[in-house]
Write a structure and sequence with these properties.
The protein has 716 residues and is an alpha+beta fold. Strands 1, 2, 3, 4, 5, 6, 7, 10, 11, 12, 13, 14 and 15 form a 13-stranded mixed β-sheet that branches. The longest helix has 19 residues, at 2-20. Residues 26-47 are annotated as: Disordered.
Length: 716
């Protein structure tokens, strides 16, 4: 036992010695080399591709008819490019989802509705707006709904092929019985694009629309149903030719008429409840929807529920019956007369039942043209907006500058001038009071300003700047006006212009009365006549800034882009359609401090009043301005606000804080606060030296420092 025990101890001791003599655990020598691996595919050279986009404009799709097969054997092929760091167009790689929108222009063979209409393939086939494709196909979920997807494969950089691999269903864009001799439209949307920082693009990435005839492969410039151009919508809603309609909030930047009709056509049915509330007439067709939306406030009494909530406060800013505001350069609106288009505005009329139609029942839309194709009941005559231009020549006056005199020898000074009147193209020399079409808005507006800037002399309520139009005496070939002017105000440039409202009905001047609709009033044609107060005979007069396109001043033409005729906006109580007429009353002498906490608007000065009105900060409450409120170029003819010193190019030097006083607030900051009406902006402006508190007002505020940071903030 002892011998065995000693042997075990010896073995343990020797093992310990052997362990203590081992190496330090480093790797041994390398073994023999293994066989070489397979050669990988080379990567794309830097700059030869793009997989991000900093703008939706960086991405471009290329579609061709020969690469589109919308049949049961669906196949689509398209190319997509992006921008590299040098701004070059290169293949866009890694696209992981697209939506395909397909429709065709169907021919209406019934006696109801428009002669042609867009028909969405996917809506008619499976009740969805588009067909989706993604790598691997399968299914995907969009806004809680699961769809079958086509298989998207990138066969080479930037070249994508979509195929349909589902044997249990037809591709959604396949429409059984589709006539390939008709006009078809296809466009795409790309998903999940990010910028160079990995942030998703805010706008939807859409292709241009491809209109083509599958049977021939012909690409069409005109689909045959381009009834309303995007540019017509952009007049009010903003945007530039070739771009989106900026401020149509629904569906974000699907905002082109050509895109809208993919879904908003007769294929998309409205529920009975929606029709009952006043939304539409059986479908969400764009024709009906747009007419009814713009009628909004006019038909509010016939709306209910969500329709009333959504549309009831939409006030179209021009004459609602001005069809040509949208239907420019075509007569489709007079050629295609059918019930649904008409009752969208005439909501309480139904020709099929006779309701609101003088009891006259019609069997179908083919009979409408019998009464409404021409004549007094014709669509063109009933929606005639050209009468304003016509009636401007029916009666008008002209001031003869050579007759202007200003006697400054006494106080008040005496202004005298002569004008001629014309009725139906002939000189009128009779008693003006016998012309019953001249309304009770009939004045000669007279004003003075010391320079070409903003300091108009008269307050709109003081009576100093208005002379009666009707009481003029006719003598020696002229109607003569004599007007007293406070001597202290009769200096600088003077201006004379009429504010005369004429009554009209059915395209002709008529005797004014309660039965005459205010919307049919006309501003009498009148041109502003400027003169020098010291020498009225001078011809080189320093004009008001409102008479030029300089200094960032607005243009009446830009106002009329949305209003059609600015006279419409003042139709009930003025006959004005020029800015010179507006500022004769809405000048700085009509200004109280504009940020009285007790009121939302205490300014009637034109610049502040218009800014506040359109931004919804006026005493009239919220105004649904249809354009981007930040797009000053929608109204102003220039985006250059400041001169070299940082002062306003317009010459505006401040805003009076009290009627009749001389102390003013700083012009720039207070103009900005007409829209940016909050205490934070006010505090910021004050901290930079602007005078925004009436207690600190001075006669001549110093030039503000706003231009140091904000010189280019409104360059578009």
């Amino acid at each position: 036992m002892s011998t065995q025990h000693n042997t075990l101890l010896l073995i343990a001791l020797m093992g310990g010695l052997l362990l203590s003599g081992c190496d330090d655990g480093k790797d041994g020598a390398d073994g023999p080399a293994g066989p070489p691996g397979e050669v990988g595919s080379p990567g794309l050279p830097a700059g030869s591709f793009a997989n991000t986009a900093d703008s939706i404009d960086d991405v471009n799709f290329m579609l061709a008819p020969e690469n589109l097969n919308l049949s049961a054997d669906f196949r689509i092929e398209f190319q997509m490019t992006g921008k590299n760091v040098r701004g070059e167009d290169v293949p866009f790689v890694g696209l992981d989802r697209v939506a395909i929108y397909a429709s065709h222009l169907s021919l209406n063979e019934t006696d109801f509705g428009a002669p042609t209409a867009w028909a969405s393939h996917s809506y008619l086939s499976v009740g969805q707006s588009a067909m989706y494709c993604q790598p691997g196909g399968g299914e995907l979920t969009v806004r809680g709904t699961t769809y079958q997807a086509c298989t998207l494969e990138e066969t080479e950089p930037g070249l994508y092929v979509g195929t349909w691999e589902h044997s249990d269903a037809a591709p959604p864009v396949y429409l059984e019985g589709d006539d390939d001799s008709l006009t078809h439209r296809v466009w795409l949307r790309a998903y999940n694009l990010v910028d160079s920082n990995g942030v998703g693009l805010a706008e939807k990435v859409l292709s241009e629309r491809l209109d083509y005839i599958p049977a021939t492969g012909e690409v069409l410039d005109d689909s045959g149903r381009n009834l309303v151009a995007d540019t017509a919508c952009q007049n009010c809603h903003g945007g530039e030719e070739g771009g989106i309609i900026v401020t149509i909030e629904a569906h974000h930047n699907y905002q082109s008429v050509g895109n809208c009709v993919n879904c908003h056509n007769s294929s998309l049915a409205a529920s009975e409840e929606q029709v009952a509330e006043g939304w539409n007439e059986g479908s969400w067709d764009l024709t009906v929807l747009v007419h009814r939306l713009h009628a909004g406030a006019h038909i509010a009494d016939s709306l209910s529920g969500e329709a009333l909530e959504f549309m009831g406060n939409i006030h179209y800013p021009g004459e609602l019956y001005n069809c040509q505001a949208c239907h420019q350069d075509n007569t489709a609106w007079t050629d295609n007369i059918y019930r649904d288009a008409c009752v969208a505005c005439h909501i309480d009329t139904d020709p099929y039942t006779g309701e609101g139609h003088r009891g006259i029942e019609v069997a179908d839309d083919t009979t409408c043209v019998g009464c409404h194709g021409s004549g007094a009941l014709g669509v063109m005559e009933a929606h005639n907006i050209g009468f304003r231009d016509t009636l401007k020549e029916a009666f008008y006056t002209e001031v003869d500058p050579a007759t202007i005199s200003l006697d400054l020898s006494a106080d008040p000074a005496v202004l005298r001038f002569g004008y001629k009147a014309y009725l139906d193209g002939e000189a009128f020399t009779g008693d003006l009071s016998t012309l019953g079409f001249i309304s009770n808005n009939r004045s000669w507006l007279v004003n003075f300003q010391a320079d070409s800037g903003y300091a108009w002399a008269f307050l709109f309520t003081d009576g100093k700047g208005a002379a009666d139009f009707i009481s003029s005496d006719y003598q020696d070939g002229y109607y003569w006006v004599t007007h007293a002017v406070p001597l202290a105000d009769a200096k600088g440039t003077g201006v004379i212009i009429a504010d005369v409202r004429l009554c009209a009905e059915d395209g002709a001047l008529v005797t004014c009365g309660a039965a005459v609709d205010d919307t049919l009033s006309v501003a009498m044609k009148a041109e502003a006549v400027y003169f020098d107060s010291l020498d009225p005979a001078r011809t080189d007069v320093a004009l008001s800034r409102f008479a030029t396109d300089e200094g960032g001043i607005t243009s009446i033409a830009l106002c009329n882009d949305c209003h059609s005729d600015i006279a419409y906006a003042k139709r009930a109580h003025h006959g004005v359609d020029q800015i010179e007429q507006c500022v004769s009353c809405h000048n700085e002498n009509a200004t109280d401090y504009p940020f009285d906490p007790a009121k939302t608007n205490t300014s009637r000065e034109l610049g502040l009043n218009v800014h506040k009105f359109h931004s919804g900060h006026s005493e009239y409450g919220e105004i649904h301005y249809p354009n981007l409120i930040s797009d000053c170029s929608a109204c102003h003819v220039s985006d250059q606000w400041f001169d070299g010193s940082g002062a306003l190019m317009s010459g505006k030097s401040g805003f009076k804080v009290a009627v009749g006083g001389n102390d003013r607030l700083s012009p720039i900051a207070n103009t900005c606060m007409a829209c940016h009406e909050n205490e934070a902006v006010k505090a910021h402006a004050a901290s930079q030296g602007a005078i925004v508190d009436p207690a600190n007002a001075v006669p001549n505020p110093p030039v503000e420092s706003c231009a140091v940071c904000h010189r280019d903030v409104h360059s578009f």
